[in-house]
């Protein structure tokens, strides 16, 4: 059994129809880092009992193939408690909660997960939480929501529900959510949790690549998705390329040489390199090395 990658190195977070056995069984072949058994919007209420019964065997199979195993339950005041009671036996790595608008929603989830960990003999505190931010009220409280539980490893921003709450008109360029995505990233970074960017909900490959590149430029290292075919594209965008690593190493070498000569900064390819640029280059190199180490381990 492979060791799942840590949350900061999870690039693609794939939502999957909770009761569609064919889609669920084939999910690991997508290459997505995190597979999310989606029991809310993608699973009609009549199919939720069937979806819950799949959890134990499904999660074991996903874990065996090296994926991080997640489940998105329904809001706790709806079907969420029934979801947890059924799926926690599968020991998901992450429990996601939709429509989180207040910190107390996360506190309630933490308490519920703790009870089920005890019931199923799971190490207490081992299940991580992923609040989903889908309303304006949640967006402006993302920092407080992220801090409401020590279990929270990240927050995920929805696209369709947030756009609907804002009364925004959706478009493939995503401009209507530009501020929300920037605000969300800042909030998550300040709270020191992973910021999972919203999904691109159209099918074209060029569009998802463009959207992921824009997110990467903002600072995102993770993106959710609803189409398995998008996983490889997102992973590619959010993995430093060989050329990017070469350039980062050149920046590090040039800056360190300047410092050895007592200089505070140095001109490099027309830009003045200062400490922040040097630090970013070192972080990119470390991320690239960590991702490649995981890939090598998976192929061994």
Automatic annotation (TrEMBL):
Protein name per UniProt: Citrate lyase subunit beta
Q: Does the keyword Magnesium apply?
A: yes
- What is the native source organism of this protein? Bradyrhizobium macuxiense
Q: Which GO terms describe its molecular function?
A: lyase activity; magnesium ion binding
Keywords for this entry?
A: Lyase, Magnesium, Metal-binding
Query: Which positions bind Mg(2+)?
Result: 134, 161
Cofactor names from the entry are: Mg(2+)
Which InterPro entries does the record cross-reference, listed alphabetically?
Answer: Aldolase/citrate-lyase_domain (IPR005000), Citrate_lyase_beta/mcl1/mcl2 (IPR011206), Pyrv/PenolPyrv_kinase-like_dom (IPR015813), Pyrv_kinase-like_dom_sf (IPR040442)
Q: Which domain of life is it from?
A: Bacteria
Protein family (similarity comment): Belongs to the HpcH/HpaI aldolase family.
Q: GO terms for biological process?
A: oxaloacetate metabolic process
Q: Where is the HpcH/HpaI aldolase/citrate lyase domain?
A: 11-228
The entry's substrate-binding residues are 72, 134
């Amino acid at each position: 059994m492979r060791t799942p990658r840590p949350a900061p190195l999870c690039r693609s977070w794939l939502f999957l129809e909770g009761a569609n056995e064919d889609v669920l069984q084939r999910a690991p072949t997508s290459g997505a880092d995190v597979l999310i058994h989606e029991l809310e919007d993608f699973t009609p209420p009549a199919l939720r009992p069937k979806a819950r019964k799949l959890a134990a065997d499904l999660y074991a199979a996903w874990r065996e193939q090296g994926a991080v195993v997640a489940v998105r339950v329904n809001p706790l005041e709806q079907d969420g408690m029934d979801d947890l009671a059924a799926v926690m036996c599968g020991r998901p790595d992450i429990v996601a909660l939709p429509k989180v608008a207040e910190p107390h929603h996360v506190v309630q989830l933490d308490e519920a997960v703790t009870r089920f960990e005890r019931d199923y003999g799971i190490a207490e505190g081992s299940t991580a939480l992923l609040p989903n931010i889908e309303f304006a009220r949640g967006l402006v409280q993302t920092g407080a929501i992220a801090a409401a539980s020590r279990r929270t490893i990240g927050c995920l921003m929805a696209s369709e529900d947030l756009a609907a709450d804002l009364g925004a008109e959706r478009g493939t360029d995503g401009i209507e959510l530009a501020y929300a995505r920037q605000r969300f990233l800042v909030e998550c970074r300040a709270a020191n949790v992973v910021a999972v960017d919203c999904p691109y909900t159209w099918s074209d490959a060029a569009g998802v690549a463009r959207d992921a590149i824009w997110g990467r430029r903002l600072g995102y290292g993770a993106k959710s998705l609803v189409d398995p075919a998008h996983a490889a594209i997102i992973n590619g965008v959010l993995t430093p390329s060989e050329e990017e690593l070469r350039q980062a190493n050149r920046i590090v070498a040039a800056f360190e040489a300047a410092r050895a000569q007592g200089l505070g900064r140095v001109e490099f390819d027309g830009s003045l390199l200062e400490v922040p640029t040097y630090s970013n280059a070192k972080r990119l190199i470390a991320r690239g090395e960590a991702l490649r180490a995981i890939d090598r381990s998976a192929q061994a």
